[in-house]
Hints:
Chain A is an alpha/beta fold. Chain A has helices at residues 45-52, 75-80, 98-102, 113-116, 123-136, 154-168, 184-199, 211-217, 240-248; strands at residues 7-16, 19-29, 34-39, 60-65, 68-70, 83-86, 172-176, 204-207, 220-225, 228-233. In chain A, α6 runs parallel beside α7 (184-199).
Amino acid sequence: MTQQPVLQGRGLVKKFGKVTALQGCDFELYPGEVLAVIGDNGAGKSVMIKTLSGALQPDHGEVLLDGKPVHFNTPLEAQYAGIATVYQTLAMSPALSIADNMFMGRELRKPGWRGKYLRQLDKPAMEKFSREKLTELGLMTIQNIKQAVETLSGGQRQGIAVARAAAFGSKVIILDEPTAALGVKESRRVLELIKDVRARGIPIVLISHNMPHVFEVADRIHIHRLGRRLCVVKPGEHTMSDAVAMMTGAMEPPGETQAA
Amino acid sequence: MSDTGTANQNSSNQSYEDVLKDAATTVAEFEEDESFSRKLQNWLHSTPSAVPMFVLLAAILVFGLILGSKFFSPFAMTLILQQVMIVGITASAQTLVILTAGIDLSVGAIMVFSSVIMGQFTFRYGIPAEISVAIGLGAGALMGFINGVLVAYVKLPPFIVTLGTWQIFLAANFLYSANETIRAQEIEEQAPTLQLFGESFRIGGAVFTYGAVAMIVIVVLLAYVLSNTAWGRHVYAVGDDQEAAELSGVKVKNTLIQVYTLSGLICAFAGWALIGRIGSVSPTSGQNANIEAITAVVIGGVSLFGGRGSILGALAGGLIVGVFSLGLRMIGTDPQWTYLLIGALIIFAVTVDQWIRKGTA
Ligand SMILES: Nc1ncnc2c1ncn2[C@@H]1O[C@H](COP(=O)(O)OP(=O)(O)OP(=O)(O)O)[C@@H](O)[C@H]1O
Ligand SMILES: [Mg+2]
């Protein structure tokens, strides 16, 4: 591929004391694609995307956005750059409402003087928008948008996190196991949403342990092993068992696809 | 989509999903068959000041029935406001900090030190009282800022930080003032601005001090800010789950520093009101302010774990203490009964908090 990656990591290293989470990890996300990231538990997938989204700062290596080096000191800086992330832990404030959580850090203010001088939040607008986004995702079992997030089921919370990222990611959307707690119907909606977002031209990073999902939506699959990228394969060229075998070290990675 | 290699896998995988096209598409509606206690829990969860408000009204009613018009009069009611003024203001500051899952043990020390600075700058250096007040307010904000930096950047536990700064500010207060009191009469003659919040106006039998009005204004302002601005939502989010707040794009460190600084500023303001309340400037005044503020906040239903509660609840908490103190004094009981009842109320409030949290977690 000769295109320039939208989001790229080069030689990323991240250590937590004696634990090495990333050792010289590379990563490329190309325009308009769905890139799946698979790997064993503890392989370093979440740490990798956290270094790309400003939640962690790599010890070495660099992150490039549209080919230019960037240094996100906080997740907020990455969000300003258009990168929206669903973290594995979901990053929700349990005691606050769904609408509060959807707009956390990017709240809407009332138009006119009430917003300008009194800094008053436009709660009706935020609630309406949240309701629309949840409906798009098929989260119909949520009755009250003013409900505290802690009163929701794990899957409903995950749905809200996905809706939030899909609504605000303008350049890149990163989903760390977005369907792990979702039901059949809700998972299907998230997969449809991923395809919709790709159709809008926004590239997506999807971390998942669910091979059928990965093989259904991914354009390329980044196989992560022991803190670095082992190889990148295409779903059409390898089977699920190949991917699992490579990911677990039971099979050597194909030499030629690594360059893809 | 992928091509031939995985098509089989997909189709077999998807067959069980085919029925989804018939799935319901409307927002779920349920018959309301939840138990009463469950509904109560949910309601209390969304209205955190309800319990203290109810206790406050009940207390006023009970004392009113026992004591009659002596207690149930505009004069007695506004007297309570005057008596809880300092507690109400410091409890507002304390609420902000506790909402972020912190605690500020230095509120009393900041208040006294700021009032001493206002007094000493006026009398020792001959600076106009208005400017001295501004300097005192600035000093309070600075003390809060120091707490904030230690909590947000040095990442020390708020309890430890403010346990330390409490001693430091209080000692600095005694060293700086040389234990010297500025007498009420002198202040009245030379710098009445310092006593501004002790002045009052009457409406019928009701006596309102400016201090009591200021307390209500502060509470209303903060209540608005906490529930209607983005900053207010961030304060709750930081107290609720700090890491989640950071990941969702809240500037956690800035918010913490702002909260502690604002708390310091409000405490300095309480220091100004304190001069109006007691008339003089004394480095030994307001000794119980800390514990009284925390008591008001806890009785007011603000969770010490952060992220839950409201400023109106904290005001109600302060008023409950005021109603009990005055009511029991009028009945003529031993003042220890007040402490005994307040102690019981604290335990009751925390029990209710636990119950509300358990019901929805
Ligand atoms: N904040 C942290 N402090 C210390 N060690 C950490 C931290 N975060 C991750 N690690 C370590 O880094 C390694 C990689 O963790 P990571 O969360 O990236 O795994 P993962 O590939 O996302 O796994 P999973 O599939 O289970 O989500 C693990 O050994 C983990 O213990
Ligand atoms: Mg992970």
